[in-house]
TrEMBL record:
Domain Putative sensor: 39-212
UniProt xrefs under CDD domains: HATPase_UhpB-NarQ-NarX-like (cd16917)
Organism listed in the record: Microbacterium aurum
Gene Ontology, cellular component aspect: membrane
Record-given protein name: histidine kinase
Reactions catalysed: ATP + protein L-histidine = ADP + protein N-phospho-L-histidine
Keywords, in A-Z order: ATP-binding, Kinase, Membrane, Nucleotide-binding, Phosphoprotein, Transferase, Transmembrane, Transmembrane helix, Two-component regulatory system
Membrane-spanning residues: 31-55, 61-80, 131-160, 180-207
Domain Signal transduction histidine kinase subgroup 3 dimerisation and phosphoacceptor: 241-306
EC annotation from Swiss-Prot or TrEMBL: 2.7.13.3
Coiled coil: none
């Protein structure tokens, strides 16, 4: 069971691509497009044939012991793979800024959540646009293949008079023409073939840009949606953090300080009549005061980790692991520094996860892995060997993690099946 949640428990919102004007295709792009379209004409025909077969088998066998469901699932996953490959192909060819196709997640656990995920994937407009683009590429590829064959034949016809024969056979036909006409007809064929290939390449560039590249209005709308989600996450995270601080003060430090005051009051009453008892009460108050100071330090550390600013994420996590009640295997490989917001979000996500593991998981050890990925994101995974069953509850620690990560522009993913283990993955833009 895998869920990816945001502040409201809904699927986390991925950051949209930056608004940028698509680059103009150049000659190399057009030549590459012709070569790719020729391959798409062959591979795409087989691929869409397989999709049609899976769909027909799925529908026809749907009522036969549910066997058709397997074919329909294969149909959906093959559709998604086709669309993903088309997105990557077009972006690699033209550099239009085509957004990467990402798998949908409903954010709801269990079988019902999985079915909702499948439905959301099926109605994903971005996936279907990729499929449409792949279908167009296949059709254009079927035009490119005979055109290339015609180009080769025209070149051969243009050079045919170099032979000894007085007449030349037109390739693909049974006609014989005099060698004096062969050169002109061959050159004409070459010109027409090249014009068709160039026209197909230009048409492909125009159609793929229109289908796959979001308009600037759509990109602005997506950015506004993400900004709103981040703002809501920040507000929710601050509320959860304030509630936690109030609870820790009310349930921990405040009663201890009240006890210290009462103990000192009793000692003051006994200091003349029973100095020994008064001394014992003062010692007890002194011990309680040191415990209160320790709790205040832990509370302050939960609000802001000064070592994070001074020495970076690696040192801060090392200190965190050393204080953990359960053994922690720490594997941090981060070159350089990320933004303070990104490091703080990841640090507190790991800290809260280790706290939850110590309190609720009944696990004997935890493992923390942190990496800075090539795409400029700071990624972390916290896993324990406990009993699992963790849930994101409003106001809980996991709720605070997801909202803090969302506010930093990242995503959080929780995997905690019953029986364990529990794993939390967070990913935050390094420059957030």
């Amino acid at each position: 069971m895998t869920i990816a949640t945001s502040a409201s428990g809904s699927p986390s919102v991925a950051a949209p691509p930056s608004v940028a004007r698509a680059t103009r295709p150049h000659l190399a792009s057009h030549l590459g497009a012709i070569a790719q379209l020729a391959a798409a004409g062959l591979v795409g025909s087989l691929l869409f044939g397989a999709l049609a077969t899976l769909l027909s088998l799925g529908v026809s066998l749907l009522l036969v012991l549910g066997i058709g469901i397997l074919f329909l699932l294969a149909f959906l996953y093959l559709l998604w793979a086709t669309s993903w490959l088309e997105h990557e192909r077009v972006e690699g060819l033209y550099g239009f800024g085509v957004p990467t196709l990402r798998a949908r997640r409903s954010g709801v656990p269990g079988f019902g959540g999985w079915m909702r995920t499948l439905w959301q994937q099926f109605i994903d407009g971005q996936m279907w646009r990729g499929v449409a683009s792949a279908a167009i590429a296949t059709v254009l590829g079927l035009v490119v293949l005979p055109t290339v064959a015609g180009l080769v034949a025209s070149v051969g016809l243009a050079f045919a008079p170099l032979g000894a024969a007085d007449t030349v056979r037109v390739p693909g036909t049974g006609f014989q023409i005099e060698d004096g006409w062969a050169v002109g007809l061959g050159v004409l064929g070459v010109v027409i073939s090249l014009a068709v290939l160039l026209g197909v390449a230009l048409l492909h560039a125009v159609l793929t840009r229109a289908i796959l590249v979001p308009s600037q209005e759509a990109q602005f709308a997506a950015q506004a949606q993400v900004a709103g989600a981040q703002r809501a996450g920040a507000v929710r995270a601050s509320e959860v953090e304030r509630t936690r601080i109030e609870r820790d003060l009310h349930d921990g430090v405040q009663p201890r300080l009240v006890s210290v005051a009462m103990t000192l009051g009793l000692a003051q009453q006994k200091i003349d009549d029973d100095p020994a008892a008064a001394k014992a009460l003062v010692d007890e108050a002194h011990t309680s005061t040191k415990a209160a100071i320790t709790e205040l330090r832990q509370l302050a550390r939960g609000i802001h980790a000064s070592v994070l600013d001074d020495r970076g994420l690696d040192a801060a996590l090392s200190a965190l692991a050393a204080r953990s009640p359960i053994p922690v295997q720490l594997d941090v490989r981060v070159e350089g520094r990320c933004s303070a917001q990104a490091e703080a979000a990841v640090y507190f996500a790991i800290a809260e996860s280790l706290t939850n593991a110590a309190k609720h998981s009944r696990g004997s050890e935890a493992r923390v892995v942190v990496r800075r990925r090539d795409d400029g994101t700071l990624w972390a995974r916290v896993e324990d060997n406990g009993i699992g069953g963790a849930r994101v509850l409003p106001g809980g620690g996991l709720d605070g993690i997801t909202n803090r990560i969302l506010a930093a522009g990242g995503t959080a993913r929780l995997d905690s099946p019953a029986g364990g283990p529990t794993a939390l993955e967070v990913s935050v833009p390094c420059a957030s």
